[in-house]
Design goal:
By secondary structure, this protein is α+β, with helices and mostly antiparallel strands. Helix content is 25%, strand content 16%. Helix 4 runs antiparallel to helix 5.
Length: 347
Amino acid sequence: MTDGGTAFQPGAEEVSVPFRPRSAYAGYRAFGDGDGAVLVEPKITHKLREAAENATAERRIAGGLLYGRGWADEQGAYLVIGGYLEAGPGENSGDRISSDGPDNFTLSEADLRLLREDAARMYSASLEVGWWRTLPDLGEFGPNDFVTQAELVGPDGVGLLVYGSGPHWGTAYLGPDGHAPDTAGTLTVVVESEVVPARDPVPESDEPERIDLGAGESLLTDPGEIPAPPAEIDVDDLDPGHGPAEEPRPAGSVSARREPVLTPAPQPTGRRVISPVSVPAQEWGVKPPISGSEMPVDVMIVIGALVVVAIVAAIIIGVLLKSAAIGVIVGVVGLIAIFVFRWMSHL
């Protein structure tokens, strides 16, 4: 066995079954709820139903062997079916659906031999635990089926009857005598809700209770005693220099009213900055005028470099042409071009 499980072999001697709670198989189709219960893996139930539907559509009976392993828990021993094999169509007698009464389906010796050879390769971790067959619709085992059950099923084995149509999936026959399980359905696990322990009563203390007036707590002992809202203050009742005149309180009373503290509004400091959005010159397509004193430093550096280049170029041209007049003319034209370009860029 690959996972420690024990599979039941029909007719085998009694063996010790490993312990595993059946709650680990929640969602499996269950037949029986105590000792001797049978659980079928959901994937296997779907495949068996599909095989039954296909066989019904072809007007034949399908059947084969079941494979699984056994476990035990506090409720007793139970069987888990995790595999199946289907006999080939047309290889067993009585596998055609007839309209004149019960069929005579049975698994032949030759087909059983082939199935068990395949099982030795496919289900080496499990053992044969029973057999299965189909019916076109809701029904029950016939006389031949009980004979097959007695031959193929051991004390802890099962025979499954799977329906090819209708809302019902099928039923199970337990043991070699084919007795019906006490219950059938889907295995569900009931999880007990957690019990929240009751809180211990807070011990009474001789120390006086502290009240945080700043957090809005009240000195009233009765929650129903809600203080009335303060009355409007008349300007004539103000005590000059001391605020509103307080009404006399009875001796021993405690006031929870706190004098308001007024904080002056912050005043702006430094030079006032005018947002460029509010300047009329910042409208779309209009550039604000830039005076000579507002020229950026990087622009001044570029213009100065251009002036120097123009002068140097004029000197070089005058030397090459051996004419001072031509050099002066070139230098003046270059300077005029620079300043005209600068002036045009600020229009």
